[in-house]
UniProtKB/TrEMBL annotation, chains A, B:
Keywords: DNA-binding, Transcription, Transcription regulation. It comes from the Bacteria. Residues 1-21 are annotated as: Disordered. PANTHER family: HTH-TYPE TRANSCRIPTIONAL REGULATOR BETI, HTH-TYPE TRANSCRIPTIONAL REGULATOR RUTR. It holds the Pfam family TetR_N. This is Transcriptional regulator, TetR family. GO terms for molecular function: DNA-binding transcription factor activity; transcription cis-regulatory region binding. The keyword DNA repair does not apply.
Amino acid sequence: MNDEMSRRRGRPPGKPETNPAERILDAAAESFATHGSRGASMRTIADAAGMRAPSIYNHFASKDELLIAVGKRYFAALVPELQAASRMPGSGVERLEHLIRVATAVSTAHPFDHLTMVRELMQVRREPGAESLVADGQRCIAIWHLVIRRGQADGSLRRDITPAGMTWLIFTAITGLTDPGRRADILGDPSTRNVDTLCAVLIDGARPVRGG
Amino acid sequence: MNDEMSRRRGRPPGKPETNPAERILDAAAESFATHGSRGASMRTIADAAGMRAPSIYNHFASKDELLIAVGKRYFAALVPELQAASRMPGSGVERLEHLIRVATAVSTAHPFDHLTMVRELMQVRREPGAESLVADGQRCIAIWHLVIRRGQADGSLRRDITPAGMTWLIFTAITGLTDPGRRADILGDPSTRNVDTLCAVLIDGARPVRGG
DNA sequence: GTCTATAGGTAGATAGAC
DNA sequence: GTCTATCTACCTATAGAC
C-alpha cells in the first residue's frame, strides 16, 4: 500500500523521467490548466509528481515561481521555432502558414503549458522573475505582426484586417485546439488531418478577397 | 467611512440596478471570468455587489449554484438568438454568417458570462442543477452543426472540414473576442469594424476552396 | 532531498441578532 | 434580507528530523 501511494500516477512505463523538477513542472502545468492556478493545490501537484508538497519547495521557491517556470518552459520551446519559421523563404502567406504550423505543433505537444500561459500567467506578470515572460510574449507577437505585414505588402494576405487582429484570431484558435476538455467534445476525432484542415480555413480566410 | 464601505463599486449613477440577485450575478461572472472560480471568493463577489458575503446565501445556496446561475443566464440570452438566426432564409453560408453575428453579439454583450461558461462550467457539469446547462450546450452545438451541414449540402461551404471542427473554430474565436484582458493587448482597437472583419475571415475561410 | 508536523492565513458556509 | 461573529476545512509555506 505504501508502495502504491508513494509513486502514484506513473508515467508510461518506458519513460523513467527521473528528473524531479521536470516531473513537478508536468504535474503543475496539467493542474494549473485543468483547475486554474488557485484551484490547483501544492498537495495535488506533489501527489501527481510522486512526492509530498514540502518537497516541491526544494525545487521551486513558491507556487508563483512554479507558475512562472511553466511559462518559461513554454516559451523556450516556442520562440526558436517561431523565429526559424519566420525566416523561411517564400511569400507572406507561405511564411504565415509555416508560423501556424509550428505554433500549432508546439502548443499541441505541450497543451498544458500553453493553457497555463494563456489563462493564468496574467496574474504573475508583475511578479519578480516574470519579466522574461513578458518579453518573450512580446517577441512572439512581433514575429507574427512582421510576417503578416509582409504578406499584406506582397499582396498574398488581405489588407482589410490588422496584423494584431489576425494574430489574435490565429492565437485564439490554437488555444482552442489545445483545450483537452473540449477537444474531444467538439472536434470528435483529434486527428492531425482535421487540425490541418482547420488551419487551412484560417489561411484561406486570410488570403485576399476574391476579385479584390 | 462606513458610508463609503457599505456600497462600494457603484454602478453608473444613472443605473439603479436595485435587484440584488442580478447585482450578485454580475459581480460573480466578472470575478469568475477574471480570477477563475476558485480564485473568486464569496467575500470579493459580495463586495463588488455592495453587500457582505453571508447575504449572498439569501439568494443562492452555494458558490456552485452561483456558477450555474451565471451559465443559465448566458444560455437564456444565447439560445433564442441562435434559433432565430438558424431559421433565417438564404444559403448555408448566409445562415452561418447570421449565426456568427448573433453569437458574437451575445457573447461580447455578456463577456464575463461567456468566459465563465467556457472556462469554469466544466467543473460543475455533474452537479445537481446543472443538467439544463449541459442540455442547452448540446442544443447550441446541434444548431451550429445543422446550419453547417446544410451549407455543405448546398455547396456554399467547403466540405473538407467537419461541422464539429468548424463549430469549434468559430466558438473558440468568439471566446477570444470576449477576453477583456487580451482584447486590448492584441486587438488594439476593439472597434466593431475590426470584429466584423475577423468574422469575415472565418466566413471566407469556410467557403469552398477556389477552383474546387 | 525527502519526509512529518505544524504554523498562520483565508476560504465557504452557518447561527442568530436585528 | 442584511448584518456580525464564528466554525471547520483547506491552503501555502516553514521547521527540523532523517
